[in-house]
Fold each of these.
Amino acid sequence: MKLVWGAASHVGMLRQQNEDAYVAEERVFVVADGMGGHNAGEVASALAVAGMRSAAARGFVSAESVVTAVNDANRTIHEASGGPSEQRGMGTTLTALIPLAATESEPQRLVVANVGDSRAYLLRGSELKQVSADHSYVQELLTEGLITADEARVHPRRNIVTRALGIEGDVNADSWTLPMVIGDRYILCSDGLVDEVDDNHIELILRSCPDPQQAADQLVKTANTNGGRDNTTVVIVDVVDESAVPAVVATTPSTPSSTSTAKRTRIVVAAAVVLTLVIGSVSAIGWYARGGYYVGFDGRGDTAHLAVFKGRPRSILWFRPTVEIDSGVERKQVFPALADDIDDKPTYTSFARAEAYVNSIRDVVAAQSEGGD
């Protein structure tokens, strides 16, 4: 068995900044929904994702190792929020799906872990069910029978969480170990989805979109159509048969022309078309290569500076990215897990969002320096 996946995230229709973060890779799938003022939520969720990614690189072997990684991420965020800065009190939810390899005594399995109210669902056969348990004020009311499920969806305090990473030095993460079953579809999401789209509609979209990327895109689009009052992030993971190979479609060779004149005509026309396409393509490549922004380190080693770049992370032809802002923050001043995440050069559609992310990291570093003094 193997996993195929898709992921989508959007700032929503009302918010100015996306404080959600996610990772969707072969060994780790995580959605984190940050909270806190002045970009603090974005820092907390980024630290959570970076910590889980680093743990995945070392390898997960059990549900206990997943919970340990969650606890480690919690400590990192808690330490970062402890200084005299605007990041004080920042936190994040987290829901994770971690595949475990088969052993001599165990088949392939999946571990679901969560803290807060970001959710994990499982679509299996004819049933969509929530695997994770919300750690929220409204869930406690629902569990005690004080409100109904319909009332919970519109409750004015539905976004108050009772557990989150970074708030305390220790956190109690829930985890479940599930068998890996061909045909299963897992959904990880922030509350921006479930606040706008009910479970019945979520299931309808999941069944109508067999491709996981298409399903993730459609769920986020629907949340925005329904109001988009919060950031929305969705990661979808399908369990498929590893031996399944897409069918190869045979093509019938075209019949060659019977005259050399016709051949020459086609060559001339094709050459003209190719020349036009080349000219247009060079222009388009230049526009694409200089479009967008990303965050990375300018230079090498511990003294490389955190910066905002204009362009694409990888040079295209002769078009190279340029530094728009040098934060003055050196790599050695950044948490190692977050520095590793920045090495992946996260991209942004606007300069403002990239600048806000860099400024939030600079604020944390400055707060740590003041605390050290």
Note: The first helix runs from residue 40 to 58.
Amino acid sequence: MEYLLPLSLAAIVFNFRAALVLLALALAAVFWQGYVAVPAILFLTLAGLIALLRWRYQSRKGVAITCEGVLVIASVMLFMHWVPGFSTPKILDQVQAGPHSQPFTLYYGLDKALIPFLLLGALPSLFATSAQANVAPWRWGVLLLCVPGLLLLAVALGGLAPELHAPVWLGNFMLANLFFVSLAEEALFRGYIQRRLGQFTGGLPALLITALLFGLAHLQSGMLMVIFAGLAGFVYGLEMER
């Protein structure tokens, strides 16, 4: 499971059929291990059937909009951990990155990691990129500088403090954040919400609204995290507006 689900997510933009096969194997593995129960399997099966309807009848506007709306609601339910039948495997328990770091516990959020599959059913062009000819190099420079700039801002606000470390569990941490957190969040907020809002409000309003929603999604971690996540969401969203 630890690698099958990330592999299926990595394959989703290259070979969708292979990604589905890997996803089925991953779900079978976590079901066997007891991390996914029957209610979750039924939920995902129903979502898959709705996605098939969305793809098959995409020319019928009413059916397509209804199916898309249901899939988006299902994705939000996964994001909020509201779907019964999922349990989160504990990978790290009260570990510290360094002697001055706060201890933390790491879980693999299986339900959240499935969001890209549902959203791809809702929006077939979720991972499609439009051809952008002659993108100005300075735009990339600004985006690359924004990332360390945000980290420096977090240090200035007291949310972070520099501490060099290379714990043995760094690989698990990177795997969890890339495939079980970041990919799902980017698919939902930038891939779907910002893109769909942009079709109605235009680029800049969609960028600002999505960044605000992304910040508020981290409210349980405190206002400092809301501010930092909102600014980070704005920077991430800029890449789509290049």
Note: The two ends are 37 Å apart (CA to CA).
Amino acid sequence: MADEVTRRNTLKTAGIGALGIAAAGMTGAWGGEASPGGAGTQAPYEQAPLPYRYDALEPVLSEEILKIHHGRHHAAYVAGLNDTLERLKRARAEDDYAEIRALSRDLAFHGSGHILHALYWDSMTPGGTEGPTGELAEMVEAGFGSVEACKAQFAAATKAVEANGWGVLAFEPVGRRLVILQIENHQNLTIWGVAPLLVCDAWEHAYYLQYKNRRGDYVDAFMEIIDWEGARQRCLAAMR
């Protein structure tokens, strides 16, 4: 059952572009399908359940951390995203854009927070996988020289994120290559158009309860539970 849930979630995340740009349409738990009945009737965003049990990533990440992270923090971004969309709808109806700067910022922050967290859960799998295979392995070798070099840069970038943010392995479609990025907060320092394949949450809420201020130890442990097959599927979808 867990394998089937993971497969469905992988298909959902495949093709999702830079922090919300869809290469293959955002539906279901990601974005909600557009409801019939005219403009302004799209369904709200929904949060998908984890693709594994809350205790499935132990000892790397505890059941308590996952329950708080998924059930409170991620859920708050989904709620914030839907609230922002409602406020924007109200602004359009009233032709009042006095708060458009704050609303635009909230849309990027909460929307990126939701999408990155959804990718984060799918970036991990109980026990991890050995490493990238197929086309992803070839791109890793071409872009970084070796899998180990790619993993070392990804881990170093994630550990060195200033304050709160993310480490991201992404496909960049213009140069058709892989890049490793540091994202500050959820929405800053990206390259437009990239499709994130693998992400690691470097916000303190992702690890502090278990690792305290030892972010490096958390990132090293995360590297052991990466779902490289899910990353490969997302890479294939992004390359189409």
Note: Residues 1-37 have pLDDT under 50 and may be disordered.
